[in-house]
Structure formats: C-alpha cells, structure tokens
Amino acid sequence: MSRLALVRDPRFLNHITPDAHPESPQRLAAIDSAFLKAALDNSVRQLEPRSAIEEEIAYVHKESYIEHLQEDALKAAANHNLVQLDADTFMSAATYDIAKLAAGAGLTALDAIKSGEYDSAFVSVRPPGHHALVDKPMGFCLFNNIAVSARYAQRLGYKKVFIIDWDVHHGNGTQWAFYDDPSVFFVSFQQYPFWPYDSGWYLEDGTGEGRGYNMNIPLPKGTGDRGYLHAFDRLVKPVCDSFKPDLIMVSAGYDAHQDDPLGQQRITTSGYAMLSQRVRDLSNQVGAPTVVFLEGGYNTRSLSDSAIATMRVLNAANESESGAVHASYLMPGAAGNSEHITGDRNSDLVDERVSEVRKHFAKYWPVLR
C-alpha cells in the first residue's frame, strides 16, 4: 500500500487573478517544480481530480449562491474580463469550472483512501477554500473545499471528522459550516488579532450540540515554531485522542511562515515538517487516515518548500524513516535548508493564551483538566 496520493492538475493554473494578486497561478507552479526536484514523483502516486457536481457542492453551499457564481462566470466570459466578487476575490471565465475541480479534488482523494490503496493524501489546488461561507465568497475562496469533502466523507462512512487548520488566517468559513455539529471537530490556529477581524477568538466554541467542538487557538503576532508546537501538544493532541475521529483533515496554509508577505508569524519549513509529523502521529494513534488541503501561502519558495516537507513526512514508509525526514529539516544544511526552530517574540504571552484556551475547553474535555 502506498502511503501518499497527490491530487494535482495543471488546469488549476487556469484560474486567473489580477496582476500582483497574492493568490496567483505561480503558487502551484512552484509546488509542481519543487515536487519534481524533490524526486517524490517515483514514490508518490499522482491522481487526476474529478469535478464536484453542484449537488455535492450543495452539501455545504446554498444553491442560490452556486447559481450566482455560474452567472458571474458567464459575465466574465462575455466581457473577456475578470469579475470582482469582493474586495480581494476574483473570477475569470474559467474560474467556476476550476473551483468545481478544486472542490472535487478532495472527493477524489477520499475515494482513493476509502479504496484502501492509500492512508494519506495531499490535495494541491486553487482557488483555496477555508474562508468561503455557505452563501458568499471571501478571502480568495469560492467553494469551501475541505468542508465539502468532510460532508462527502461522512457519506462514505467516516462518521467523525477532525479538521486542523494551521493557516495564518482564521478558517471562518469552515467554522461556521460545522458550528452546531458535534460530528465534526474543528480546530484552528491563527494569528490574532488579524483578518478576518470578526472571528477567531477562543470563546467561539460552537452552539447547540456543537458546543465544545469548535476550538480556536488565537496566537499573538510573532509566534514561532515553539509556540505552534506547544499549542499542538497541549491542546490539539489530547482533544483529538479523546474525540477519536475516523478521519483527520488539514487546511494547510503555509502563510504563517516567517518569509510569507501576508502574515507576521515565525514558522519555518522545519516547523511545518514538525507540525506535519504531529498530524501523522495522531493519524497512527487513532487509526484515522489523513487528507491535507492546500490553503494559503504567498511566498512561492517558502510555500513550495513547506508543502514538500509535509508530503515527505506523510510519505515516509515507516516510523524510523519518518523521524529521519523530520530531522533533515532541523539540521543546518540538510535538504538545502539552514533554518533552526524559531522561538516566539513573546513566549509568556503565547503560553498564557494556550493556558486560557485549555482552561476554557476543560469544561467540555476532561483530558484538559
């Protein structure tokens, strides 16, 4: 059995954004180039995605919203120009079909994992998805790829889904899609305060039967590898062990990297390798497969290096090899990387925030007491 499937397609480059827009086709082109240079193409099976049909997208999104995007796509084609959906989200003539392909890529990954051939998948797509709300686009996102896939997974028999979002921005669209649902646990790391400015605080913990199943980890500006790993160990790991999911999904934004132009966090490529290792460890511990979805990341070098780091960890054949891959990102000069694990600009503030979140969620999860 292969460990990792990579779902990718050159058609994702056909979603056009304005010149100098951060969410550009060059993001995926850089990952594709790094993938070939990393010599992973001989050990990772590449899968061609299928498009999601409108009925599948409607697992999450309102039909009226889907129809509205179809109309906008026709306008873009008729005018031979881009249609601006909000302050920073655009559609070209091909965008609607590409967004359906991005939503369907996760479904392709899940079908492959359900077949038993793979135990993890990396879904390399654009446009990203975790900001898309049920009835409107937001933050470069049209359809919420990971949310649609989570609902599809439940139709395949995965009853309990654990979603980890480590993008620098809060995964607000995913939060609100499952806010009252105890079958989907959503945990989001984000720089806070930061965009979007109306969500992401830890008191947003769910509603109704979903209370306690939405965990935000709002980390201060300047949090580095140490703070993210500390939060993962103190919050994510124990709750995931207790929740016992059938499936783990990750919204993997790489824009908390210290070289990213949109965020002010200090994660290194080494840090992303270590976060990925923790996800893989959780997967092994609870016996749940993992599907990773590309979200943000706007420095093409740090984005591609970090995405490849995640793929390497997920594709490692055994525990000893996985540890070696992990270590290669920590040693100066290894794998062309001279980074060291970064600390936080204010570790006391980070630790205080993690303790606040832990104390709040202890009333829902005894393991945190």
What this model shows, in words?
The chain is α/β, with parallel strands linked by helices and 369 residues long. The chain has one domain (4-368): 3-Layer(aba) Sandwich (Arginase, Chain A). It is built from eleven helices and ten strands. It has an eight-stranded parallel β-sheet, with helices on both faces. Strands 3-4 form a two-stranded antiparallel sheet. Strand 1 (4-7), helix 1 (26-37) and strand 2 (45-47) form a beta-alpha-beta unit. Helix 8 (269-286) packs parallel to helix 9. The longest helix is centred in the first third of the chain and has 20 residues, at 95-114. The termini are far apart.
Summarize the structure.
The chain has one domain: Histone deacetylase domain (Arginase, Chain A, 3-Layer(aba) Sandwich), CATH 3.40.800.
Let me know the average pLDDT.
94
Name of the CATH first level: Alpha Beta
Strand content: 5-15%
Structural class: alpha/beta
Shape: globular
Give the biggest sheet: 8 strands, parallel
CATH superfamily: Histone deacetylase domain
Radius of gyration: 19 Å
Distance between the termini: 39 Å
Domains counted in the coordinates: how many? Answer: 1
User: H/E order of the elements?
Assistant: EHEHHEEHEHEHEEHEHEHHH
Unreliable residue runs? 329-338
CATH architecture: 3-Layer(aba) Sandwich
Helical residue percent band: 40-55%
